Amino acid sequence: MPSPNAAVPPVAERRPFTHSEHGVDRPDPYHWLGGDEPAVLDHLVAERSFYDASTVHLEPSRSALKAEMLSRLPAVDESPRWPRRRFTYWTRHPVNSDYAELWRLNHDSEGRSTTESESSSLFFDINAEDRGTGYLDLGVTAVSPDEDLLAYSVDTAGDEVFELCFRDLRTGEDLPDRIPRSYYGCAWSADSRHLFYTVHDDAYRPHQVWRHRIGDDVASDQLVLEEPDARFELDVRATRSGGLVVISSESRRTSEVWVVDAQAPESPARSVGGRRQGVLYDAEHAGGDTLLVVTNDDAVEFRLMTAPVPRGTDQDHTSWKEARPEHPDERLLRVDAFADAVVLAHRADSEHRLRIVTHDDLAGNGIVVRSRDRVGFVDLYRNELFDAPSVLVCDETHLRPPVWSCIDLRTGSATDVHQGEAPGFDPDAYALERRTFPAPDGTPVPAVLVRHRDTPLDGTAPALIYAYGSYEAVDEPEWDPALPSVLDRGVVWVHALIRGGGEGGRRWWLDGSMRHKQHTFDDLVAVADGLDRAGLVDGGRIATRGLSAGGLLQGAVFSQRPDRWRAVVAEVPFVDVVTTMLDETTPLTVTEWEEWGDPRVREEFDWMLAYSPYDNLPAAGTRPDLLVTGAVHDPRVMVREPAKWVAALRESDPDWSPRLLFRCETSAGAHVGPSGRIEHLGYEAEVYAWVLDRLGVAA
User: Fold this and answer.
1) Is 60 left (phi over 0), alpha (psi -120 to 50) or beta?
2) Rounded to the nearest 5°, which phi and psi values hold at 80?
3) Which residues are the active-site residues?
4) CA dihedral 111, 240, 192, 267 (to 10 degrees)
5) Counting CB atoms within 10 angstroms of each CB, which of 164, 169, 416, 521 has the fewest?
6) Tens digits of residue pLDDT in 343-356
7) Looking at the predicted structure, is the pLDDT value of residue 250 above 50?
8) How far is 547 from 569, CA to CA, in rounded Å?
9) Which CATH class is domain 77-227+287-306+321-419?
10) Is residue 541 within 8 Å of residue 505, measured between CB atoms?
């Protein structure tokens, strides 16, 4: 409940406005909250003030939780080290620092490390880039092939508009070259004199790749490729071989890839396989004139092809040859090529695994690398040398800080080289297991249950469920120093692996998107109902949490099953689905039509209207407590969406309204919350303090 001394909830003005599509009228009295008049910010500030006043009684809990979370951070947190030609690199978090430092160690002419005290150096301190705005994020940090220059980009508002800069690592000074608007992704040419970078348009769609020559006026930068189709987004990256720059353009269901000769950066980009509706592919340079292509062409869960490097002209898919057929129970995700072997990343049985195969036996079983834990996650870490005899992998789980190992590419033998630290944390004090619960259509929905060993699964403990369920995305198991603070208080934390995500492969996503989106919501409710029905947790004390598309999930289950939840946390929720998907000027809208549907089409309009939380408010008097977040600079979910939803919910149930809190970032702040690890743990402490209070758990 809000603090007894809390202020009165804000009441947004209602102004007549109606949307009309396909003969359907949708009243929208809070449409004005999508504008830029001063009254909008005034209302958001009032909502934040109400949140602050309503949670002042939680300050002791927040402070205690944050202190616990910070205590699990090592005083000095260093990453494992990864080699390049002249230097070995690593990151370092000093004590009480929000951001990392980048360090490197010089090699002698034979590749051996010299005395560390003589040649190790801090070459980039991210903390020093703080502009005092309350937010800091880096888009790229890329060391040039000759290791003399660093390209880096900085966002100090949270709107994902990055200024691209260049630092001379020999002098430590920044070059005058500054590119005021750039996005994620970049690639150096082989001579370290050119950088390829992406630029986004006013809708935040990366639509162009440019090439900058070091030392030249940025006004003379050359446009390399432009994507005119608003459904597609461009990306650019270098290959590990150093021989090619790869440019990809991708929508949710179709893609095209081009390559540029890194030795001749001014040469034109050449298509690897053209563009065919419904066909996705990506390319990796295997060395020489061979590309490795991962594609869903005639393979739902993707297969591996070989293709020649296009020279002089574009090529189409007829030049491809199958190298590894589709395995229906194994989703092929990515291919990484090295001189002596190829590493395939794939999912099987909802688990992320690696498979090492040789260049001459790409279809073979090879060597499978799995997490050492039953429910863990193993993936390649930083491996920048093409001719390396081994690869560095990271293995982690919810209940163990990551372990980094070197895997021999010939034998598969593993040698641990670095162990993450968590002072005072005992992983043996906790338990983790996987269960499945039937959805209404009979589909088994997996869920991972994490708890303290002293917390029984006998129907007495409260539960907090986390889920996402969109874009074929997967929230892999990873160590979170905040989570034990919840588990130590007797809460069962549940990760629901629902349809719409990628945990079960491409088919799992297809069965939870577009016309099948309702499956995503049904699956989350099925997990909650199943936990209750099986007598595992207290069915009257179940909370649920999700962010962005996971916030839409929370909004939908809040409306569809308000009786199910004790509390709901909807972070930056995408809740005004139909209105946003009809507005092509809203950032990222057109690129989303192949995930949710295009509401200009009546059938697809009907899909979305049936579940859009803003258009489907639950009945008054039946609602659980609700915490909503948003940020005025968020380019992914515009702040108008949570603001309008909150206003409509308040107006439709005034008696319940004080149990609704809207934590809005009204200055600097981003889609995923505060930047910096300390500030972010402070945010987690806020959310968990509220959840624990709602679940009746002493913090």
Assistant:
1) alpha
2) -65, 170
3) 548, 634, 671
4) 150
5) 416
6) 999 999 989 999 99
7) yes
8) 8
9) mainly beta
10) no
